[in-house]
Amino acid sequence: MEDKVILLDFYPSMFGMRPRVALAVKGIDYEHREEDKENKCQLLLESNPIYKEIPVLIHNGKPVCGSFVIVEYIDEVWKDKSPTLLPCDPYQRAQARFLADYIDKKVMETGNLIWCEEREEKEAGKKGFVEFMKQMESELGDKPFFGDNGFGFLDVALITYTPWFKTFEICGDFSIQQDYPKLSSWVKKCLEIESVSKSLADPDNVYNFYLTIKEKRGI
Amino acid sequence: MPVKVLDFWASPFGVRVRVALAEKGVSYESQEEDLFGGKSDLLLQSNPIYEKVPVLLHDDKPVLESSNIVYYIDETWPSPKLLPASSYDRSRARFWTDFIDKKVYDAGRNIWMGKGAEVEAAKDEFIDVLKKLEGALGNREYYGGDQFGFLDIIFVSLSCWFPTYEKYGGFKVEEETPKIAAWLKKCYKRETVAKSMPDSQKVIEFVGMMRKMHGIE
User: Fold this and answer.
1) Which of A72, A98, A135 should one mutate to test binding to chain B, selecting the residue with the greatest count of B CBs within 10 A?
2) In this complex, which of B61, B63, B88 lies closest to A62 when CB atoms are compared?
3) In sequence order, what DSSP letters do the residues of B172-195 get, joined into one string?
4) pLDDT per residue over B22-38, tens digit each?
5) What is the distance between the alpha carbons of residues A69 and B102, in angstroms, rounded to a whole number?
6) Which residues of A touch B1 (CB under 8 A)?
7) DSSP B32-62
8) DSSP state of A175
9) Could you tell me the end-to-end alpha-carbon distance of chain A, in angstroms, rounded to an integer?
């Protein structure tokens, strides 16, 4: 039976970008459906009744929800298609999962603070973000990618935040990448992979989306 | 290769690791951490980002975050298998693990840390979370299907704090979500679960102490 793969997505979403990247690097054909956040379709509401959020991967009619859950699912189901995203060794896998979760916690927490209008919150956000970048620079070390065997799970986890860096920089009035040479080099290497760069949202597009949200919230 | 767990008796997250290792028949050394008096150097070095328990040290290599530890235990000691066999069922287990991790403990915490009207709102939210989990169980024996499995461990571990939430929230899990109550009874019949749980009365006393510390009572 031929696989039918649908991705319910939203272009600027860093979470939506993760399955896009995973599917693209493995060369898996799928139907992309862009969701309207103001007017969610019935399929999304039925496929993810708990959160009613993208991304949702629908594989032969069965929904898989949650960006990291989807990436692990893709890696397992299409294990014959390289690259293998998760490390083979259980300890390395545990490290990758831990850091992926850390990335989400830290970036969401600090990003939300950077977006605040109040100076104190903004400064706290910037400080937290700097700590985060230092941690990730240290984790990367001298490797070309976070994955030991090339572009992998942790690379997918972090690269999808990079289209949002311009927005954080403008809101926080600070520069993110220039102080982190290893991470800057890593971003360049990831973007050299065509299937990765074509799956990421354009940073200007992301910033414009952020401005429309700000306007809607009357900020 | 030696296995050591940095733990705290009342931690529901620590319970997950205890149950998983017991299910696999793995011997280990347990080190009780003093979370209030002074965390050990080993804990601070093993988990510098969060400085939290539980930590599993396998041949001195630290594995962090309880759900992550249970995945690691399942992958390292293959029998009996805790995660389901099919990729799709595994994705469901991962989804609900993430939901439980994000929702249950914090919703419960809002009950015992709440003041005045906050408590009622927190109780309603907690019950809503339980109802969603009751829906996920459906008519199955366990979250794992016919067999006690990964998701059962992830969720049952948090139940040692349910009597605390019931006391401060003024509700009963059995009345609000009878299927969950029935599933809990089944789980508690398992030796691996029963011997891993802290005494729920002692947890209530512990939380009473924490409430005093936070100036709630």
Assistant:
1) A98
2) B88
3) -HHHH-HHHHHHHHHHHTSHHHHT
4) 999 999 999 999 998 89
5) 14
6) none
7) E-BTTTB--HHHHHH-TTT--S-EEEETTEE
8) -
9) 51
Dist CA B31 CA A36 (whole Å): 51
Candidates B75, B91, B99; nearest CB to A73? B91
Integer CA distances (angstroms), A49 to A5, A34, A65, B86, B216, in order: 19, 18, 10, 22, 36
- Give burial (CB, 10 Å; 0-12/13-18/19+) of A206: buried
CB pairs < 8 Å spanning A and B: 55
Q: Which residue in the block uniquely carries the two structure tokens 């999304």?
A: A44
Bridge-based pairing of strands B61-64 and B55-58 is antiparallel
How far off is chain A from B146, nearest CA to CA, in Å? 21
Nearest to A179 by CA among A116, A143, A136: A136
Sign of dihedral through CA atoms A191, A197, A201, A202? positive
Residue of B46, A97, B155, B20 lying closest to B55 (CA atoms): B46
From CA B137, how far away is CA B124, in angstroms rounded? 20
Tokens of A16: 């939506």
| Residue recorded with tokens 């319970």 | B15
Task: Give the one of A50, A59, A135 whose C-beta lies nearest to B132's C-beta.
Answer: A50
pLDDT in tens, B138-183: 999 999 999 999 999 999 999 999 999 999 999 999 999 999 999 9
Contacts of B63 in chain A (CB under 8 A): 91, 94, 98
Chain-chain contact of A66 with B98 (C-beta, under 8 angstroms)? yes
- ipTM score above 0.90: yes
Residue B165 CB-density burial (10 A; 0-12 exposed, 13-18 middle, 19+ buried): buried
The residue written with tokens 């017991």 in the block is B22
